[in-house]
Amino acid sequence: MLNIAAWVNHWDPYPFILLNLALSFQSAYAAPILMISQNRQAKLSERRNHLDLQINMLAEQESTEILRLLRLLCEHSGVRLDNNHNGRAFEEETKHAEIVRQIQGELEEQAVELMDVLEEGAEDGAKASKDLSPKFARRVHLNEDQGPAVSVGIGKSNHP
Predict the structure, then answer these.
(1) What's the 3-state SS for 33-53?
(2) Rounded to whole angstroms, what are the CA distances from 158 to 31, 134, 141, 142, 154?
(3) Is residue 37 part of a domain?
(4) What domain range is 22 assigned to?
(5) How far apart are CA 134 and CA 155, in angstroms?
(6) How do the pLDDT tens digits run along the chain, 160 residues long?
């Protein structure tokens, strides 16, 4: 019904000012809501990752203990272990603090690499804007009747 009334009465003609206003209003209140939601999801994801790391470390400790107990059972039962397979390496205690430091170091390296990429992009953007600036330069020319005038255009100026 609204479409028919709009077609007949032309209440929002071509530049669509009211439509633009409505869409701008919608984006103005939707953007902060989306940002809040993304921040919440990022925090939730970070908590899940931290929990996964803790669970994996506990599982590794349990596996190490099971391997140690299995070796002791084999020795007690007189079962001979294959000397080519070095099972004692799996029984070594995992140094969790060292693993966390290694992960943090890798994350810091990735952050530095990301910053380098962003800086290169900013430098490339600045260079591109300098290259384009003569094409989009302001041209000031004197009009004898009206005084100085400013024109913006593309390409080289024909005015001195």
Answers:
(1) HHHHHHHHHHHHHHHHHHHHH
(2) 45, 13, 10, 13, 11
(3) yes
(4) 2-94
(5) 8
(6) 666 666 677 777 788 888 899 999 999 999 999 999 999 999 999 999 999 999 999 999 999 899 889 888 888 888 887 765 566 666 677 787 888 888 889 889 988 988 888 888 878 777 766 665 555 544 444 444 555 444 444 444 444 4
SS3 154: coil
Contacts of 73 (CB under 8 A, 6+ apart): 79
In a domain, 137, yes or no: no
**Contact in structure between 159 and 138 (CB atoms under 8 Å):** no
For 38-90, list the strands marked E by DSSP: none
In sequence order, what are the beta bridge partners of 140? 150
Q: Is residue 134 part of a domain?
A: no
* Residue 141 falls inside a structural domain: no
Q: Helix axis angle, 96-132 relative to 17-77, nearest 10°?
A: 150
Number of domains in the chain: 1
In this structure, the number of other CB atoms found within 10 A of the CB of residue 83 comes to: 7
Rounded to two decimals, what is the model's pTM? 0.47
Handedness of CA 122, 123, 125, 126 (dihedral sign): positive
